[in-house]
Each structure stands twice: as C-alpha cells, then as structure tokens.
Specification:
The protein is of the alpha+beta class. It is built from ten helices and six strands, in the order βαβαββααααααααββ. The strands form two sheets. A four-stranded mixed sheet has the order 2-1-3-4. Strands 5-6 form a two-stranded antiparallel ribbon. α1 crosses α8, α1 packs across α10 and α7 packs across α9.
Length: 235
C-alpha cells in the first residue's frame, strides 16, 4: 500500500491515517507531496493522477484509491479486522465512529482559527484568538467535554481504552492545543499529553520539525522576513 500525504507540518488530514497505520504497524510506502495549490502544480498532477479530488490523504492499494480519511480508516479496519482499529465492543465502536464523524464534519472555528502548524510556537496567539472568537471558545469547550466524557466512560488511557482510530483522528487537535496554548479540563489535558507522547505521533512530529518548509499561505500568524520565522500581530 502507498499513502499519499502533504506537508507533515501543516497537513492535519494526512496525519490521521499515517499515525494510525504507524501505531498499528501496518506496512505502507509513503509518498509526501509539497503543498502547492496553483492550478498546474506538481501537487495537483500527482494527486489527480490517482484521485479526482486533488486532495490528500490518498491510500492506494493494488490500484484501488481511497481518498478520504474516514474511508481510509474503514478500509483498513476491514483489511485488518484483528488490529483493533475500531473498539471490539459494539457500543464503544459506535461511539468511536460517532466522535470521529463529529471531528470530520465539525469544529470549523478550531480548524480555521488554529490551523495545524507543528513547527510554530503560537502560545501567545492562542489566548488572543480565544478572547476574540466565540466559535473557537465553543469548539474548545466541546472538545474538552467530548474527551472528558469518553475517558470517564471507558476508563482510558486512550479514548476507548486502547489506541484506536479515534485517537489517530484527534492527534492533529492535540497539535493545535499544544502549539496554540489552548486550555483544557484536567482529564482532557492529561489525555492530550499521553497522545502526543505515543511513538507514532512523535515520529510524525519529528518529521514535521525536520521539514523546514515555510509556506506563506499556511502561515496566518508568522512571517519569515528575517532569518527565522516570527509571530505577527493578531488582527
């Protein structure tokens, strides 16, 4: 299998299946593409050669292309039913799918106001954004509630006991929480720290930090006018 991804520093959707496959020790080849959304870019040529959306991630397996992160997870769960990609218990499995779907389709303010940027220290920016954006405050409150309720119901250490697709889905959120200094309730904060410490997440983070590929269109809060990126004023 081959997993086509974007920049590890910025591509939250790519992070989800990559972390899951690494954590589950599913063998795959990685094809990393540099984000470039100009019409005739190498990025679009490579992605559209296998999938009509021109987006990442894309999983290619023996000529079959799966180009949505949830669809990729479901495909892997069918292919490897004994790995525990979804919880074995039917009730927990349904809940895990529900929270992944909520992440997949919701939290718009968190996504737009706090784009993933693993390389950046934006802890001075996060509090300013929270003060200015009611939607961001609501999204963060819901995230804390979701994690806390799930951990209390299932006992941890991960959302549904052992590491599953649900944890991989929320790994990019943890990147936002830590990089923007966003506050969480104690149980949710402890979970975020555990998730970031997992080897699969740490491998992704290390590779993201090694990229050193500053893309202006992905950087609403930093500029690189000097020798190193600096945090801009938040408007």
């Amino acid at each position: 299998m081959k997993l086509i991804i974007g920049n590890k520093n910025y591509s939250s959707w790519s992070m989800r299946p990559w972390v899951l496959m690494k954590a589950m020790e599913i063998p795959f080849e990685e094809q990393a593409l540099r984000f470039d959304f100009s019409p005739d870019s190498a990025f679009y040529k490579a992605t559209r050669a296998v999938a009509p959306t021109g987006k990442v991630p894309v999983l290619v397996d023996d000529g079959l292309a799966i180009w949505d992160s949830l669809a990729i997870v479901e495909y892997l769960a069918e292919l490897y039913p004994d790995l525990g990609i979804w919880p074995a218990d039917r009730t927990r499995r349904a809940r895990a799918r529900t929270v992944c779907a909520e992440m997949h389709s919701g939290f718009g303010a968190l996504r737009s106001q706090c784009p993933m940027n693993i390389d950046a220290d934006l802890r001075t920016v996060g509090p300013q954004l929270l003060a200015r954006h009611e939607g961001l405050r609501a999204d963060l409150a819901r995230m804390g509630e979701l994690w806390t309720d799930t951990l209390q119901a299932c006992g941890g250490p991960f959302l549904f006991g052992t590491f599953s697709a649900a944890d991989a889905f929320f790994a990019p959120v943890v990147m936002r929480v830590t990089r923007y200094g966003l506050p969480l309730p104690p149980l949710a904060q402890a979970y975020a720290e555990r998730l970031e410490a997992t080897p699969a997440v740490q491998d992704w983070v290390a590779a993201a930090l090694a990229e050193k590929d500053f893309l202006d269109f992905e950087e609403p809060y930093r500029d690189v006018s000097g020798p190193v990126p600096v945090v801009k004023s938040v408007i």
